[in-house]
Structure formats: structure tokens, C-alpha cells
Write a structure and sequence with these properties.
InterPro entries: FYB1/2-like, hSH3, SH3-like_dom_sf. The chain is α+β, with helices and mostly antiparallel strands and 124 residues long. The protein has helices at residues 2-7, 15-59, and strands at 69-73, 92-98, 103-107, 113-117, 121-123.
Length: 124
């Protein structure tokens, strides 16, 4: 009997059940990812609101925020002050308002506002 059991080919009995468990795990992970996405979008909206509030207080901007034009940054420029917007080369910026000098007020994709020199922007 021991020899018979030794050479007997065993088929996995729980293979279907294991596949079912794998599918079930993937569905649960997808549901978790959906909830994470909603959470991150809520955090982003809070962050944008905070940035907009800071922008209105710092720049004393009472008008409605409208995008005048879009521009692309030609080169990377770090910010020297908090009111300056740090930009990287190729970044898309929304132009919000034009100032008297050589700077414009822009908003980046993260929702941050600040001054950017016209020399560093490429308008299409």
C-alpha cells in the first residue's frame, strides 16, 4: 500500500477554490483603490482651497479667478520668495492675471499660485 500511494498522481483538489480566492482578493483590492482615490481627491481639493485662500490673502485678490491664457515654462526657475512660483521646464501654467511689471500671476497643476516672469514663459 505504501508503494501504491507513493507513485499515485495527485491532482490538486482545491485549484478552483484557490482561483476563486485570488479573484476575490483582486476585487477587494480594487474596491480599496477606489476608496483611496476618493480620499486623495478630497485631500487635493482641500489643498487647493488652502492655496486659493493663501493666494487671496497674500495678493489681496478680490476678483473671480479666471484663466486668461495657458503658457509653458521655457526653463526651470526656483522661487526666491514665497510669492514667486517655482517652475520646471515644460510645465503647463494657467495665467490668472497680468501685473504692471514683467511678471504675471500663474497657477500650476498642483494648484499653487505665484508670480512668474514673462521671460520664462512661452505663450502659444
Amino acid at each position: 500500500r505504501e508503494k501504491d500511494n507513493k507513485y499515485k498522481i495527485r491532482m490538486p483538489k482545491l485549484r478552483v477554490v484557490q482561483e476563486y480566492k485570488d479573484n476575490r482578493k483582486s476585487i477587494v483590492e480594487m474596491e480599496r483603490n477606489i476608496f483611496k482615490f476618493k480620499k486623495s481627491s478630497e485631500e487635493k481639493s482641500r489643498k487647493r482651497e488652502k492655496e486659493e485662500k493663501f493666494f487671496r490673502e497674500t495678493f489681496m485678490y478680490d476678483k473671480e479667478i479666471n484663466v486668461i491664457n495657458t503658457a509653458t515654462a521655457e526653463c526651470s526657475v526656483p522661487s526666491e520668495r514665497r510669492v514667486d512660483l517655482p517652475v520646471t521646464a515644460g510645465e503647463q501654467l494657467d495665467v490668472i492675471d497680468v501685473t504692471e511689471g514683467h511678471a504675471v500671476i500663474c497657477r500650476n497643476s498642483e494648484g499653487r499660485y505665484g508670480y512668474v516672469l514673462v521671460e520664462h514663459l512661452n505663450f502659444r
